[in-house]
Design goal:
444 residues; six-stranded parallel β-sheet; five-stranded mixed β-barrel; binds iron/sulfur cluster; OB fold (Dihydrolipoamide Acetyltransferase, E2P); alpha/beta; Rossmann fold; pyruvate-formate lyase- activating enzyme; binds 5'-deoxyadenosine
Amino acid sequence: MRPIQTPKTYRVKSFGCQMNVYDGDRMAELLAEQGIQPAADGEDADLVVLNTCHIREKAAEKVYSDIGRLKREDGSSPLIAVAGCVAQAEGEEIMARAPTVKMVVGPQAYHRLPEMIRAAADGHRVTDTDMPAETKFDVLPPRRRSGPTAFLTVQEGCDKFCTYCVVPYTRGAEVSRPYADLMDEAKRLIESGAREITLLGQNVNAWSGENGKGQGVGLEGLIRDLAAIPDLARIRYTTSHPNDMSRGLIAAHGEVEKLMPFLHLPVQAGNDRVLKAMNRSHTVESYLHILEHVRAVRPDIALSGDFIVGFPGETDAEFEETLKLVDTVRYAQCFSFKYSPRPGTPAATMENQLPLDVMDERLQRLQAALNRDQLAFNAASLGKTCMVLVERKGKHPGQWLGKSPWLQSVHFEGDAAVGDLVGVEITSAGPNSLGAILRQNCAA
Ligand code: 5AD
Ligand code: SF4
């Protein structure tokens, strides 16, 4: 064992979902509290945290190539910690294959990083993939700084066990954070600059808790109480399961002005046999029924979803039904993926795994349909006025970038600042962004 110097600088590299980005931010805050400074751009860090994602293929290979690339010209390496879902799923193997990795830490244990760093600095290699009874949220330092948009993890884990998905294994069982902790964290974020909060969870709409009056509430109760905080302008939530789309939550879309008109509700496939094999526990019809209700209370809602093509045994005719569903819904934007067998999940050992060329062809056709609808959704914004929350400067001098209520990226020029909520008129529409003219800045 060779002692290593205690790190003075760090870098956290996060991959994958927004929850991983949130975890990465919290790890950064934790390291900063230990007196470790963020490494400047382009500068070598003493400690590198690779915050990995395991949801689809090549995640593990990517981690090994990232580890290899961290090797310096003199052959030395920074202190490397592998965190996130690959760490949880393949921690032992990483330790065996990559001697430069000194720490492996799972998504529920990263609050223990400081002690792990001390052990690593003493020359030990440490793995912590526990799902401890104490929650990391009770140990992490309070949030101190925020940009205009912030994530807030309200719920973690998943009990749904879709047959293709690793999340129930890597993130563990569904757990809701307590209401009071969330209100506190939200207030701190708002005090430190957040004007928009996105509530996060693998199944965010399964969140439940007890409000300040001792009443049991669902996500809509939390949303309504957050909306009462004057300095908070916008609320979003992601990602949801159709079966947890309660009446109350749907009603909130029609009643809570600060709840943005955007709903990410993954369906995965457009055929009931495939949905059953995926263990989705909803049908195409029940899914469409939910969308109908949401559109009834909030007609301008932008819909989004996730799709998997080429699930084991999916026939051509079954895939055609996915295209039919897309034609029916007309999504504003979507994510779509080729099925990827995840070790340890039931679908990975199902018969009839489909060849890659079939999946490629299906994905291309699906994405062509989704792109068509995304462009059409954006084009329908032309000539409209809307509010944009300014998030950052654009590439060109004097240009600003922000988001419309429907989560479209909008760029415009004029007198504004990060964090302003400005009125704009949409003057151009592309597949991925909108151009606009500034009409009114309400920041003053
Ligand atoms: N293969 C392909 N896509 C997957 N997803 C989850 N697991 C897999 C898998 N094994 C997709 C789903 C999910 C999104 C986060 O990732 O569409 O909603
Ligand atoms: Fe995975 Fe299904 Fe849970 Fe989503 S609902 S995290 S796809 S198991």
